[in-house]
Amino acid sequence: MQIPYTVEPRPDTGVYNAKLGIWLFLASEVMLFGALFSSYVLLRVGATTWPHGYEHLNIPLATVNTVVLITSSVTMVMSWASLALKNLRKFRVYMGATVGLACVFLVIKGFEYAAKFEHGLYPSESTFMAIYFTLTGLHGLHIIGGIVVNCYLLGPGSKMWKTDPARFTNRVEIAGLYWHFVDLVWIFLFPVLYLL
Amino acid sequence: MSEAAPGALAGIRTDHHAPPGFWRTYVFSQDHKTIGIQYAITALLFLLFGFTLMMIMRWQLAYPGQSIPFIGKFFGDANAPDGVMLPEFYNQLGAMHGTIMVFLGVVPLAVGAFGNYVMPLQIGAPDMAFPKLNMMSYWIYFVGGLTMLSSFLIPGGAAASGWTSYAPLSVIATAGQTVWLFGMICLITSSLLGSVNFITTILQLRAKGLSFMRLPFFVWAQLVTSFLLLLAFPPLEAAGVLQLMDRLAGTSFFMPSGLVVSGQPLAYTGGGNPLLWQHLFWFLAHPEVYVLILPAMGIVAEVIANNTRKPLWGYRSMVYATIFLGFMSFVVWAHHMFLTGMGTVISSFFQATTMIISIPSIIILTALFLSLWGGSIRFTTPMLFALAFLPMFGIGGLTGLPLGLAPADIHLHDTYYVIGHFHYVVAPGTLFALFAGVYYWFPKVTGRKMNDTLGRIHFWLSFAFINGVFMPMFIQGLAGVSRRLYDGGAMYSHAQGVMHLNVFMSICAWCLGLAQIPFIFNFFWSIWKGKKVSANYWDATTLEWAAATSPPMAHGNFATTPEVYRGPYEYSPPGNAADFLPQNQPVEAR
Amino acid sequence: METASAESVRKHVRVYVTVFVTLMALTLITVAISTLHLGTVAAILVALFIASLKASLVAAYFMHLISEKKLIYAALTLTAVLFLVLMVIPVSHFADRGL
Q1: How far is Cα of residue B563 from the mean position of the Cα atoms in its chain?
Q2: ipTM of this predicted complex?
Q3: How far is B90 from chain C (nearest CA, A)?
Q4: pLDDT tens digit string along B299-315?
Q5: Fold of the domain built from segment(s) A33-43+56-195
Q6: Is residue B331 within 8 angstroms of chain C, CB to CB?
Q7: Nearest-by-CA chain A residue for C92
Q8: pLDDT tens digits along B328-339
Q9: 3-state SS string over B244-295?
Q10: Which of B227, B258, B320, B431 is the most exposed place for a label (fewest CB within 10 A)?
Q11: Is A74's CB within 8 Å of C16's CB?
Q12: What range defines the domain where residue B65 resides?
């Protein structure tokens, strides 16, 4: 027997399996970053002094990174829309752009980290630097995860377009939901760490 | 994109070109039944191992400072010179006993094994929604378990800061704690993947006609449990990451300023908060209590309905109580922290939520008790364990009430009373329910039943000795004996009056160990030599018994896609020849 | 989304572009405001408000939450409530204890 509702939605719930699965996974991610955010609040409220992000961190670089990540979200959703319009070539272009922008984000992040280390600012420096490195590091790991998934869909995974285009489109949508969530986390990290 | 009619989905899978080889069939299987069996075997072994750790600790508690007989010389000079257990080794055994029993034993058995094997069958599904993910869950759990075990072999030994790993002690502990954290992150990841899979499967793959109020109670229990795992585990993962940063990168998330250990100021910048760990830990660990108990309640409900031959009393109220219980479990965490300097307003709040959360537990337990009323009870081996669960869980639950009230908790906190309380919930409670599940579903998996005489020996001996282990703990705890003393309280004058109980408890614990031998023998003997039985041996109504006995180990559980026409527990329906009506029996056929 | 026709997809694309421009504008606004160095409370409120606005746009349009099924809404509502419970941790820690 085949597992039902891998492609078409179940009539009473209205979703296909992976759609529900990814949202549940994102729900757990919300709780993961929520707990870290809550820890941040607790530590900051309890601290005697807390530096402003702009005193230690590079706002121009982070702003560029915000723009890069939001743009990659748009290219991601465009790659899905291209598949919905049955255009595999445009999908490749947009998906390639998404992966490229994600790499740009990581490179910029790498420069930021390197600059911090050069000035002797390590996670052990202060609670602020600790939370900065932990949150951005964990977010960076999520970016890497997204790059791996997107590269798979761009490369070997796209063979499915020939055999089961509807399912492949769904896969891209699922990867997109994850990618937008990673973008969404950054949208909060940016002001919380850099601007406040 | 909805051209495929639901009926077309029942077609036989055509993409199996060749029968899968040995590795795909037995090791890296994607079939939920194989994975369920893998979980069961691994978890049972971990339970035995965790229990062995405790039996070794009980020697030290009964005869502090005396050389451990027979096995003492195997622990090495670093742990037990001349076979005499060092305090550090005792702490390792304690921390690892708790961790192994909870995260590697009970949860994988209750959710990973029974959930995986039984739940898809009970909802009439061909497999889990994401078979590859299911396989990954098991293997990540396996790696996490091996990681945990390996920590005994590294210098400094395993984690020794208790299963709660409270900071700052855990941050400055030996390398075993780092391994513990990596192991935990594996186990959490495995649970998260598993819970995504479980929820999706239950919501998406239910058979036609299987509406929510027709779900077997066991499925409901798994659904709520999965939500608890999904949403409560990530905060502990976050806490684990923060503690790893503290240990490896020298941050001070949990390290307060000016901490001095053994007269030496620590090389931490400080500014952190040790209580943050407790908040995050208990944000998981209280829901975790219900992760331990809800699947057990689910199993007991199945066994009781089947062996009383009547519908569960108050099925709907049990379902609503379970959902409410799951939700409330997220707002009681700080009742573990009454002694951390919390003010009266906040502790009153958590006191109130704690009292409220006892209500749904009582509703479920009462419904199960009332289900016995007027039934013609078959005292089968699984039923004995299920019946014992009721009063045992009752004792565990009721002794928890004083702990939930801040004034009483001041006296009882961190004493043996706490140990007695939660062991009554988890050992004669959950573990007995899990044994009931093993005896109950064994014919489903193997096509043979386990021997009844051995089962009865196993039950009565376990029942007697397990109470012998845990009941005296209440007395010791009320006398104020702390749970973490490696000499059982010999150093303290207030403990002298209850010290003699240690010997009795330890002997009971070792006899409890011996009492498992009939079970282990029965288990293996019955696989090959047990009495062969029919596909629906217990005359049960739920869908798993509509599938073939020991369904084939590949995707596809049912010869034809089952359809459901009625609720889960239609036992002894009036005007019916048989005393049960399976869920998939069409209405016309009555 | 499963039954998206070519026309509706094209309509979506126009929405994506609009949302993208709005997100860029909001990013610049929040950076600009941060250079004013408002008081701590005001700065936090403004920054979090803008971030929430941006996040809502991403969730609503890129993640298609604006037209999602009830089941997904239910799961996310539960998550949102428990997220708020997580935010109670610092409150429960400091309230009634003094800083």
Answers
A1: 32
A2: 0.96
A3: 33
A4: 999 999 999 999 999 99
A5: Four Helix Bundle (Hemerythrin (Met), subunit A) (1.20.120)
A6: yes
A7: A42
A8: 999 999 999 999
A9: HHHHHCCCCCCCCCCCEECCEECCCCCCCCHHHHHHHHHHHHHHHHHHHHHH
A10: B258
A11: yes
A12: 27-255+270-589
